[in-house]
Amino acid sequence: MLLFAGPPAPAQHTVNVVTINGVINPASSEFILKMIETAEADSLHCLVFQLDTPGGLVTSMREITKGIMASEVPVVVYVAPSGAHAASAGTFITLSAHVAAMAPGTNIGAASVVSMGMVQDSVQTTMMRKATNDAVAFIKSIAEQRGRNAEWAEKAVTEAASITASEALALNVVDFLAPSLDSLLIQLDGHRVMTTKDTLTLLTRQAKVHYLEMPLRYRILDKISDPNIAYLLFIIGFYGLLFELYNPGAVLPGIIGGICLILAFYAMNTLPVNYTGVLLIVLAIILFVLEVKIPSYGALTIGGIISLVLGSLMLYDTDMAFIRVSWEIIATVVVTTTLFFTFAIGLGIRAQARRPTIGKEQIVEGSGEVLDEFQDGEGQILFEGEIWQAKSSDVLNKHDRVRILKMEGLTLVVKKE
Fold first, then answer.
1. Percentage helix, strand, coil, to 5, in the chain?
2. pTM of this prediction?
3. 322 and 395 together in one domain
4. How far apart (Å, rounded) are the C-alpha atoms in residues 304 and 386?
5. Strands 208-212 and 14-21
6. In a structure prediction context, what are the per-residue pLDDT tens digits for the chain, which is 417 residues long?
7. Same domain assignment for residues 140 and 93
8. CATH of the domain at 392
9. Are 87 and 136 found together in one domain?
10. Who contacts 392 (Cβ-Cβ below 8 Å, separation ≥6)?
């Protein structure tokens, strides 16, 4: 008996699709490189990054482009969906891909170098010229290696040129215009690409598509690298430690403050931070602490508020609009801080203005309790439900009982019972 069978079905290839949204930073860079490494280890047929970014850090962009260009697996960068863009660093990343594609209604370009430092104009001009020339050479080398329009790539840096998806296709900036991922995979089928390992023909029409999401770890690192989140973590961290100092033993505020500060320092390590701004914010916190310890009837708080506002505005040292603290968040922090310390100062002033409700005769020879360990012979005691400043030649610890010997103004002279 004869058996007739058709030709064997072609092996089904696997394509991983990864979505990259938002600012290009160390977290997204690490994630993208990890995806490339995984694709190579799994011998994937193709790796697609669906991109939508306003740009990001040059260091992170360079790491990504180097990783893409060294990849043994074909990497496709697809600017999508409609309304997305590949601006600034995103332009470099798109041009570096083995295959570049865009959805209708997207745009690419505006890759000019922006200021990242607060220096003198003459020095700034020289630095900008050097950075621009370096960026031009880099983007042209990428475009030439991928056979794309190097002339337009140069204009994207020097003139901040930006074009639509259809213009990008006409100018040979990208390879395909695809309204959807399915459409893109159909167009990619049969397209030849050259990787560092071999020249391959893409077979994607019937490929098995895996959609991958950024793991929680990378999402957290990406979120805390947001300039506004980093700023809030920094402020909350200091306030947590401040509350712990005012209320020793509370524990939780100190733990939260410590965690927030560690996360803030990580985030600031990934951002163009101006340390003058950091120091001004720290100075503001110190002034607020001193106001409580040494009441100045609001003078220190006013200085702290001014320092906090200036520090917040100067915190990030860049001209990039998406790397700065929003006015709304600065206003919220400043108003909240002002209200809190105004309330605290008001309580302090009223407490100082309050006259003793008992006579001197009733105070002398009275007994009180030490509120906290005396420092340099001075501290506070609780007597008849009121807090008094006191001094003593004895070593006094928290909760010690003391006998009042005499009064010197509004300060009590005490000894240990």
1. 45, 20, 35
2. 0.72
3. no
4. 30
5. parallel
6. 344 344 444 446 899 999 999 989 999 999 999 999 999 999 899 999 999 999 988 899 999 999 999 999 999 999 999 999 999 999 999 999 999 999 999 999 998 876 544 444 555 577 778 888 999 999 999 999 999 999 999 999 999 999 999 999 999 999 999 999 999 999 999 999 999 888 999 999 989 999 998 999 888 888 888 889 999 999 999 888 877 776 766 778 889 989 999 999 888 887 878 888 889 988 988 888 787 677 677 788 889 889 988 998 888 876 666 677 888 888 898 888 877 776 765 555 555 555 455 556 667 888 889 998 888 889 999 887 788 889 988 888 888 899 888 888 788 898 888
7. yes
8. 2.40.50.140
9. yes
10. 374, 377, 402, 413, 414, 415, 416
Cα separations (Å) of 226 from 25, 151, 304? 9, 34, 25
Token representation of residue 28: 């997204």
* CA distances, 413 to each of 73, 253, 296, 366, 417 (Å): 81, 35, 25, 11, 13
Question: Residue 270 sits in which domain range?
Answer: 226-353
Q: Is the peptide bond before 272 cis (omega within 30 degrees of 0)?
A: no
Domain annotation covers residue 5: no
Cβ contact 315:284 at 8 Å: no
Q: Any idea which residue has 């990378």 for tokens?
A: 218
Contact 403, 417 (CB under 8 A): yes
User: What CATH number should be reported for the domain holding residue 45?
Assistant: 3.90.226.10
Nearest-angstrom CA–CA distance, 48 and 100: 10
Residue (of 36, 179, 173, 185) closest to 95 by Cα position: 173
As a three-state string, the secondary structure of 329-361 is HHHHHHHHHHHHHHHHHHHHHHHHHCCCCCCHH
User: Does residue 4 sit within a domain?
Assistant: no
Distance CA 271, CA 337 (A): 25
User: Both 364 and 347 in a single domain?
Assistant: no
Whether residue 344 is found in the same domain as residue 389: no
Domain end marker among 353, 369, 404: 353
DSSP secondary structure string, 189-253?
TT-EEE-SS-EEE---TTPEEEEE---HHHHHHHHHTSHHHHHHHHHHHHHHHHHHHHSTT--HH
